[in-house]
Amino acid sequence: MPSEFILPVLYDLVLTIGGETRLKPLMTRFLRRILYHTSFPAGLVLLDTAVCRDDASQAEGRIGAVVGDFELLEREGQVVRLPAALVMGGVVRQEQAGALLAALGNNRYDAFLRLPVENVGVILLMAPVMPATELPLANMFQPILAQLANAARLCKESEARTAALIDSSRNLEAQRYLMASVFDALHAGVMITNDKAEIIAVNPAFSRITGYTRDDVLGQNPRLLSSGRHDHNFYADIWHSVVTKNFWQGEIWNRRKSGEIYPEWLSITHFRNQDNGATHYVGVFSDITEQKSAQQQIEYLAHHDQLTGLPNRLLLRNQFEAATLHAARAREKIALLFLDLDNFKYVNDLFGHAMGDALLRMVTERLRTRLRDSDILSRLGGDEFVAVLTGVRESGMAALVAEKIVQSLRQPIEIDGNVFHIGVSVGISLYPDDGRDFATLLKQADMAMYQAKSDGRDTFHFFTQEMNEQMHERLELERKLRAAIEDGEFRLHYQPQIDLATQHIVGAEALLRWPGKDAEMIPPAMFIPAAEECGLIVPLGEWVLREACRYARQVCTANNENFLMAVNLSAGQLLRGNVVDTVRDALHESGLPPHCLELELTESMLIEDSEAMLDILHGLKALGVKLALDDFGTGYSNMSYLKRLEVDRLKVDQSFVHDMTTSSEAAAIVRAMIDMGRSLGLNVLAEGVETEDQAALLHELGCHDVQGYLYHPPLPEQAFTALLARDTQPR
Amino acid sequence: MTTATQYIAEPNEANIRATLDSWRTQHPGMGVLALLPEGQKAVAPLLQEICAAHKIALMGAIFPALLVADKFRSSGLWLLRFDQAPDYLLLDKLPHTGDGAERVAQEIAGKLRGQLGQDNEEVTLFLLFDGMLPNIATILDELYLHLANRVHYAGANAGSETFKPMPCLFDATRVVGDAVLVMLLKQHHGAILEHGYQLAEQTYTATSTAGNRITHIDWRPAFEVYCELVRARYGVEINRENFYQYSVHFPFGIVRANHNVLVRIPVALADDGSLICVGEVPPHSVLALLDAPAAGSRHTVEALAERMVALNRAPLQDRDAMLFYCAGRRLHLGLEEAQAEVQDLQRRSGVRQVLGALSLGEIGASTLWGYPLFHNATIVATLW
Fold it and tell me: pTM score > 0.80 for this model?
């Protein structure tokens, strides 16, 4: 091995040893460089090694520095027992030493290089496989190890001198002894720095609290304790106080050696020696983790109901106020539901308070299941609860939740074999409609609750009468809708669609009809919005699709194989139901060819969430069904939009058709729409045709198909079938 | 670590959203690593906007070019999905000094030590640095002091091939320079790295260095010695005017005891004749000029492919390889030869696809249990 390879390595190591005055950094730096040069991956320095008195095959030493081994790093500072064959003796470079090295606590290594450092200890370099090198590792480091031994001795002396200097700052031996005893025995941590902010002394409590040994921190800046939780200004304020008032005291978060962050109560005092002007800073601190935790417990008790763990009135008020800030920004409502249990007093009187308490806990659980995580549930005391519903877009939602709560507490509650029938009366006030502050809304909800009690209990009542009536009507309608779906009360009527050129029926639009109890049809405008809001639109829409497909298949087989059945889709169906699967199933069940089904969409429902909608429309198109744009002209029509949506047909809204023979403006609009449709290769159908003049003008403008009372009203299935049978001659 | 990858040739809003939306439905807790070529750095804010809106953990870097299959591309976008977002940090305003490196390493180790998980779980510390940082090797040295062999080390340098400062690392809210993006990849076996450069016999000592600057070689001005060495070995006359044209072809190697060689490409020349390299040159390093791999030589990829198979402990046909290919190496070998190397690597290793970027420095260990080393002119490969 040429010396030009060896000398730079030795030179670098000599410089590494350099002028270091502290043992730990010296050893760590030396280890790091020697590992770099030798290509061993890990190494440790064992200090003060000696053969054990009770077992000569073992040696003891303190782990002084580790590089490259995470597990050994965690054991830095510990005294360990290792095989004497591993750590005692001269320089050794040994392979197949896995058994010896296993004593380090893992089976990772099989080769090592031992470098003893006189009067200091030993350096061990470890590797899974002996690194290939031509360097004469067994003897090239001898002169360096002698240097290292000297440097280590100087470091030890220097550290001892520093300690001695600190000690000698008190010249009375007894006083020093006393002070040192107090210093060591204090439960509070103490840290002393010099004017350069270098730590010069710490007591045992410091090590107990922070996890750092004295060796770890001597000469370091106290910054090593900082948690990262405080900003620059926080520390600047502390130092301003220390410099100007010679004192600071307060709570601060610091970090232990383990990485754990903890709170401490710290006081910093600035001392200036009158004789020599030297400056010291003394920090005295206590770990206040436990106090903090107790404080948190007190905070919790101050803000929660002990029986149920729910927020009490104080916390409810805070949370409500926070919720109003969000609601004001989002332009949403908040509903405050005041709940008072019915018949609770009787449980308490007859079965005692323990049973009453158990019942309240059960009620709390039930109420929780009826609310979302974002809602707030609070117990005011006794049998009074308050639920705050956030993100309320319309008042019906509050009514729905109130109804669910009432229903849920209508179910009997069983405790220890006793069955209780209680109920709840609910009063509702709304932010911002009924008021904006907590006290007002709570009072109003309370008043509404009394109204619910006087209405016969076991129900809910809104603060405003108008809202109350509206909501109860809405709930009644929903109940009826549910029953109508279950009882099969709905019917489909079919309005014929006519080809203007041949005057033959080419298709029909399926229209939902609900015969009321008195045989009068309930208009769709009344029940469709309610069905949308409560989600019934999905099962209702499914029924319409299945029924329309069944009938269309019948017509296709008997009359016209290209008969086109148009079915309206609602926004609710598109957003909530899995409409593609529903259509696929309806086609499959009925056997209707996909090209005979047309799905009608309105422009407004497509605008809302165009990307998600586009995916659904592509899914529908992939099934082979046709798409029509209903009420065309009333929304945001533009050509690129129509192309993207892959629409097959435009339906001109009846409002334009109605005016087209009397208003030149309406006629111009209809012409433009027909032209636009034709230029895109789309079929155009005009709705609401009622007069011969309208029909003639539409024909002249190039409109393909029409529907309206001029031809036929929507007909029940039987009448439509009869009409189709007659539809053999042009009109 | 389970993942999916998607190269988007036209990274517009619709295409990015389409990919992220389809991923998001299956993996609501996912994270995304985005690689962009510098020509498309304007895409980063768009990515941030989309990811912030959907609360997707975003990590990203801008490189001179992307590697897509066996081609280097200056457009497009790689999106790499982690089914579960890894723990990550983006630290910026990094100090350029040795002391600063100590603080950076302490911060990284302090924040990630708690996330290392079970003792037996293999973890890779994946680091993407701004290539303009002069103290990357020192930061790696310091990190090794804290995390030692608990993690594998892998990564590369991002930035502009012009070597002009450019914010090149990002998360969902920031695009920053002078920074490092650190990711903790669980159940990951680290990376391997090869360069294939051969040592010239004659060695020299870097007698004075500071960080990534060599001031003296054998007690003489570094540039003067460098010119002599190149003239003597290759017959090429280097001067201040043509330095930038030639230096990439004649890199130095730092020779370590086991003949492990760290490549250092001189990329700039200071007024005082100091050579400025990508990556630090420790004082008293033994230096030698390096012979680059000959065109058509496949030693580098052969070694890489063998070790990739060993790393996976199984055949690689259903794995992807993430490659960082040094921009200096491509400059030296030429585009076609560089692409041929990548193509050959894919063939020999049998991986399903190659993805990655052209980098400005690479990080890996030359042995599976080794020190993290910072190189130039290499190919670093990791299984993805």
Answer: no
In whole angstroms, how far apart are CA A67 and each of A46, A123, A610, B260? Answer: 12, 11, 59, 20
Q: Which amino acid is at B380?
A: V
Cα separation, A16 vs B159, in Å, equals 34
User: Residues B81, B86, B91, B96: is their CA dihedral positive or negative?
Assistant: negative
Instruction: Express each pLDDT in A443-470 by its tens digit.
Output: 899 988 988 887 778 889 998 877 777 7
**CB B371 to CB A37 under 8 A?**
no
Question: Considering CB atoms only, which of B17, B144, B286 is closest to A5?
Answer: B286
Half-sphere exposure of residue B205: CA atoms within 13 angstroms, side-chain side? 16
Determine the angle formed by the axes of helices A344-351 and A353-369, rounding to 10 degrees.
Answer: 150
Residue type at position A133: T
Put simply, whether B369 touches A (Cβ < 8 Å) is yes
Q: What is the pLDDT of residue A730?
A: 43
Tokens, residue B153: 């080390």
The Cα–Cα gap between A293 and A278 comes to: 40
Alpha helices in A488-558 (DSSP H): 524-534, 537-558
- Would you call B282 and A128 a contact, using CB atoms and an 8 Å cutoff? no
What's the one-letter identity of residue A684? Answer: V
Q: If you search the block for the tokens 């004469």, which residue do you land on?
A: A136
DSSP annotation of A226 = B
pLDDT tens for B334-378 read 999 999 999 999 999 889 999 999 999 999 875 546 678 888 889
How many CB atoms within 10 Å of residue A724?
Answer: 20
User: How many secondary structure helices (H) and strands (E) does chain B include?
Assistant: 9, 28
CA atoms of A635 and B277, how far apart (whole Å): 65
Residues B137 and B279: their CA atoms lie apart, in Å, by 6
What gap in Å lies between CA A637 and CA A164, rounded to an integer? Answer: 90
Determine the residue type at A552. Answer: A
Q: Which amino acid is at A215?
A: D
Q: How far apart are the C-alpha atoms of A179 and B20, rounded to whole Å?
A: 67
Distance CA B361, CA A366 (A): 61
- Cβ–Cβ gap B257/A70 under 8 Å: no
ipTM score: 0.81
- Do strands B213-217 and B169-170 pair parallel, antiparallel, or not at all (unpaired)? unpaired
Q: Which 8-state DSSP code applies to residue B199? A: E
Q: For residue range B118-159, list pLDDT tens digits in order.
A: 667 889 999 999 999 989 988 998 999 899 888 999 999 999
Q: Which of residues 80 through 139 in chain A touch B, CB cutoff 8 A? A: 108, 127-128, 131-135
Strand spans (E) along A108-212 = 111-117, 121-127, 189-193, 199-202
Dihedral angle at the C-alpha atoms of B91, B94, B100, B102, nearest 10 degrees? 30
Angstrom CA distances, A399 to A334, A406, A461, A474, stand at 12, 10, 9, 9
Task: Report d(CA A254, CA A266) in Å as an integer.
Answer: 10
Q: Tell me whether residue B82 is exposed, middle or buried, using C-beta atoms within 10 angstroms of its C-beta: 0 to 12, 13 to 18, 19 or more.
A: buried
Please give the torsion angle defined by the CA atoms of residues A697, A702, A705 and A710, in that order, rounded to the nearest 10 degrees.
10
H or E element that contains A44: strand A42-51
Summary mean pLDDT of chain A: 86
Judged by CB atoms closer than 8 Å, whether chains meet at A132 and B259 is answered as: yes
Give the largest Cα separation in chain B, rounded: 64
Two tokens at B47?
């990515």
CB within 8 Å: A35 and B371: yes
* Block residue for tokens 């036929």: A712
CA distance A399 to A471: 6
Q: Decide which of A56 and A378 is more confident.
A: A378
Q: How many residues does chain B have?
A: 384
Measuring CA to CA, which residue among A432, A440, A426, A436 is closest to residue A471? A426
Q: Per the structure block, which two tokens stand in for A379?
A: 């117990």
Q: What percentage of chain A carries pLDDT values higher than 90?
A: 41
Mean pLDDT, residues B258-285 taken together: 85
